[in-house]
Specification:
SH3 type barrels; 2 domains; 6-stranded antiparallel β-sheet; alpha+beta; 2 helices; 13 strands
Length: 191
C-alpha cells in the first residue's frame, strides 16, 4: 500500500529566531512511499531534527560563554586579593627620579591594548598600574580592548600612558600602561 507522508517542522523557524538567524528554516518534506519506507524516512527526519536541536543548544551555550567572556574583559583586585606586580620582558626605567612629568593628551585620543611585544603576546590580560613606579596593579584588561588615552609620560627608557577602560558590565578602571603594550590611535576630531 502506498502512502503519501508529509512531515512539516516549524521548530527550525522557532530555533532560528531564538539564535538571531535572518532566514530561519522550516522544513517541509513530501513523498509517496510504502509504509516501511515512510517509517524509515520519518525516523531519519526525526534524527536530523534531534541533531539540529543538539547543535542549537551548543550555539546557545556558546553565546552564554560569550557573555561570560565580556565580564572577564576586566579583572579588578579585591580588598583581600591584590594582583601581583609582574616583571617585564622589556627594559624598565632604572631611576624613577629621572622620569618625566605626566602630560595631558587632550580629548579624543583612544588606543588598543594589544599586550604584545615584537608580535608575540606577552600579556593576554594587560596590567594597569598605579604609576610608573608600579607599586600596585589597578586592574587587568583583555588584550585587544579599546581604551581612552588620557595622559602620557615620557621617560628615559620606558614611556607610559594613563588610560581608562569601561567594561560592558559597567565596571571601569584607570591606570598607567607601558607604551610597548598600547597602540595609540589618531585623535578623533569632534564633528
Amino acid at each position: 500500500m502506498d502512502r503519501r507522508v508529509v512531515v512539516m517542522t516549524d521548530g527550525g523557524a522557532w530555533l532560528g529566531a531564538r539564535l538571531g538567524m535572518e532566514h530561519p528554516v522550516t522544513t517541509v518534506t513530501s513523498t509517496t512511499t510504502t509504509g516501511d519506507q515512510a517509517g524509515a524516512r520519518v525516523r531519519r527526519i526525526a534524527a536530523l531534527m534531534a541533531a539540529a536541536v543538539v547543535l542549537a543548544f551548543g550555539a546557545l551555550h556558546a553565546r552564554a560563554g560569550a557573555d561570560a567572556d565580556a565580564a572577564s574583559a576586566l579583572v579588578l583586585p579585591g580588598p583581600d586579593t591584590p594582583i601581583a606586580v609582574p616583571t617585564f620582558v622589556f627594559d624598565d626605567n632604572p631611576d624613577p627620579d629621572q622620569c618625566g612629568i605626566p602630560q595631558p593628551m587632550g580629548s579624543g585620543y583612544t588606543g588598543t591594548l594589544h599586550g604584545s611585544v615584537d608580535g608575540e603576546i606577552v600579556e593576554p590580560m594587560v596590567y594597569l598600574y598605579d604609576s610608573h613606579l608600579r607599586l600596585e596593579v589597578r586592574g587587568q584588561v583583555r588584550a585587544g580592548s579599546e581604551v581612552e588615552v588620557v595622559m602620557y609620560q615620557l621617560n628615559p627608557v620606558l614611556d607610559y600612558y594613563y588610560v581608562r577602560f569601561g567594561a560592558e558590565d559597567g565596571r571601569s578602571v584607570e591606570g598607567w600602561v607601558p607604551a610597548p603594550l598600547l597602540e595609540v590611535h589618531a585623535r578623533n576630531q569632534p564633528g
